[in-house]
Design goal:
Blueprint lengths: L27 E7 L9 E9 L3 H12 L7 E2 L8 E9 L5 H12 L2 E8 L8 E11 L5 H15 L1 E2 L4 H4 L4 H9 L11 H24 L11 E4 L5 E3 L3 H9 L3 E7 L9 H13 L4 H6 L5 E4 L1 E2 L2 E8 L2 E9 L4 H9 L4
Parallel strand pairs: 1-4
Antiparallel strand pairs: 1-6, 2-4, 2-5, 3-4, 6-14, 7-12, 8-9, 8-10, 10-11, 13-14
Length: 345
């Protein structure tokens, strides 16, 4: 497994800005872009909150205690960094009570800033978001930082950002991923029922995706479509196997489709041809077979190899450099900032 700092950069030939991230939570602002708006009726209350210095799980625990529900019943769409000023939505199963009163109780009991409250019919599920907006201040940048950042973002907007998982998922030095690998040795799959086990197994899957993408880049395949690839339509998210690489290559160059990589699991749709051989080689190198994936109850999925930063802007800031952009769900802003700064993040 590869630590994040050892992963390749798409823009390695462009000079970075240097600098430091996350000097304070206010320097790393993230705002969820919802997949849908709550309808105004139903047995669940959606609370949009802003917080600093808390993990997403900390917020779930605090809301559960304040409003008398089980922590597992507090829904959220995704995880956010602890060292950030994050705006995200949580759902709570509260069939009765005025939403204004529920919001007031939540704010008073937890100290969270509650920005909005509205009812909806279902629990907010993992992945129920369109993406995230980021506004990030980089301190201690070098000369020509604005021009350098703009040049790097221009390339990422054109070619796409390698969609590596960040340290937030893998843990320092891939620690969470290594622990997840050890959990695969449990033949009963019982350990996978706990929250921490599921998190560590997910980190292991993420590390193998990173290994696959690293090898794909090393082979010069990042900006290519190959016969056998499982590609994703950018407009609908639909998956299909590439048969005619020349035809699909034109769509790839226009940003209409992207290659996907393996989130290994028993039900994952595999690639064919040379791409399939690479996927099998990465899994074999990890010493894992299909029975272990099934035993750990890992279903598997596909993840785009690239994502496109949108709504980008760069400007000077009193404390350094201000960088803003939007990313689709599941993408890590720290991976974009690593390209921009060329410094550890």
């Amino acid at each position: 497994m590869d630590a994040v700092r050892e992963l390749p950069l798409l823009t390695a030939d462009l000079p970075g800005t240097g600098g430091r991230l996350k000097i304070s939570p206010a320097h790393f602002v993230v705002e969820e872009i919802p997949a849908y708006e709550p309808c105004g009726e139903g047995a669940h209350v959606y609370l949009e909150v802003r917080r600093e210095g808390m993990t997403t799980r900390d917020v779930q625990r605090a809301l559960a205690g304040a409003l008398g529900v089980a922590e597992r019943d507090v829904g959220c769409a995704g995880q956010k960094d602890k060292i950030s000023r994050a705006t995200q939505t949580f759902s709570l199963p509260l069939a009765s009570g005025a939403v204004e009163e529920i919001a007031s109780r939540a704010a008073a009991a937890t100290g969270l800033e509650v920005l909005a409250a509205k009812r909806h019919r279902n629990k907010l599920g993992r992945g129920h978001l369109a993406g995230n907006r980021f506004a990030i201040v980089v301190g201690d940048v070098g000369e020509d930082a604005v021009e350098r950042a703009r040049a790097i973002l221009a390339r990422l907007e054109q070619q796409g950002l390698p969609n590596f998982f960040g340290e937030q998922r893998l843990g320092p030095g891939d620690r969470n991923a290594r622990r997840g690998a050890r959990r695969l040795d449990d033949p009963t799959g019982a350990a996978a029922k706990s929250w921490i086990a599921r998190m560590e197994l997910s980190a292991w899957q993420s590390a193998l995706f990173n290994a696959w993408l690293r090898e794909r880049m090393a082979r010069g395949w990042f900006d290519r479509v190959l016969a056998g690839d499982v590609a994703r339509k950018e407009d609908t998210g639909g998956l299909f196997e590439v048969v005619d690489a020349a035809t699909e290559g034109a769509r790839f160059a226009r940003g209409e489709i992207s290659v996907t990589g393996p989130i290994y699991g028993a039900k994952m749709r595999p690639a064919g041809g040379e791409p399939g051989e690479l996927e099998r080689a990465v899994l074999e190198a990890a010493g894992v077979d299909a029975s272990a994936l099934a035993g750990a109850r890992l279903a598997g999925s596909r993840r785009p190899a690239r994502v496109f930063p949108r709504d980008t802007s760069v400007a000077l800031h009193p404390e350094g450099l201000h960088v803003a952009f939007r990313l689709p769900k599941g993408a890590f802003a720290t991976m974009a900032m690593r390209e921009i700064t060329k410094a550890p993040v």
